Amino acid sequence: MQHKDLLQDAAAWFALLSADQQERVQRDISITHYPAGAIIERKGEKAYAWMGVLNGLVKVSVGTSDGKLASLTGVPSGGWIGEGSLLKNERRKYDVVALRDCSIARVPVITFNWLLDNSIPFNRYLLHQLNERVAQFIGKAEYDRLLAPDARVARCLAELFNPLLYPGKSMRLDITQEEIGYLARISRQRTNQALRALEAAQLLKIEYGAVQVLDLDGLKNYSL
Known about the structure:
By secondary structure, the chain is α+β, with helices and mostly antiparallel strands. It is globular and about 50 Å long. A hairpin with a 5-residue loop joins strand 4 (57-63) and strand 5. The protein is built from nine helices and eleven strands. Helix 6 packs across helix 8 and helix 7 packs across helix 8 (188-200). It starts with a helix and ends with a helix. The longest helix is centred in the middle third of the chain and has 27 residues, at 120-146. It has two domains: 3-134, Jelly Rolls, CATH 2.60.120.10; 148-221, Winged helix-like DNA-binding domain superfamily/Winged helix DNA-binding domain (Arc Repressor Mutant, subunit A, Orthogonal Bundle), CATH 1.10.10. Helix content is 44%, strand content 24%.
């Protein structure tokens, strides 16, 4: 599959560009494959590219020198991350880790800045993404502190179906209970219990290695 086909499938912003702009992105972009567990970007490294998940699932997390970890968010196929570090010309403040085998696209910072200078639609897309990302992290900070495990799993799954951050996704997501546990920061056993409770509430259906969402608004507002 050519870069253009991959980008059309996993980059909503690509269709907003002119033909000349698309051509430059295709020429400059790089794609790297990572196995599950690999560190894609390390905290403290200089940000040099905008990253997109062409396929797979990654975790954005922070950690301390004594081994404590905090998961900030998960990013499924179609998600793009790291624009904040590029806009502020700073080092990464988080690790990006592959939860499963992933293909990661990188748009170099020089190309990213060129798009900012030359594409109003790209700027609007990025503005909406940044605004949605801020709302996501505010909500996450709230539910991590106030909600019980069942509700945390519900909100964690709802995040992965955000139509602005991850457009074009169906209501079925290939994700294991172990991966959900990583993102919600609870054990696999407790994750299984939470999923069963959410299934009993008819908010989702558990499938082998996947979750089918039946009521996205119900997941967003689940609070038991």
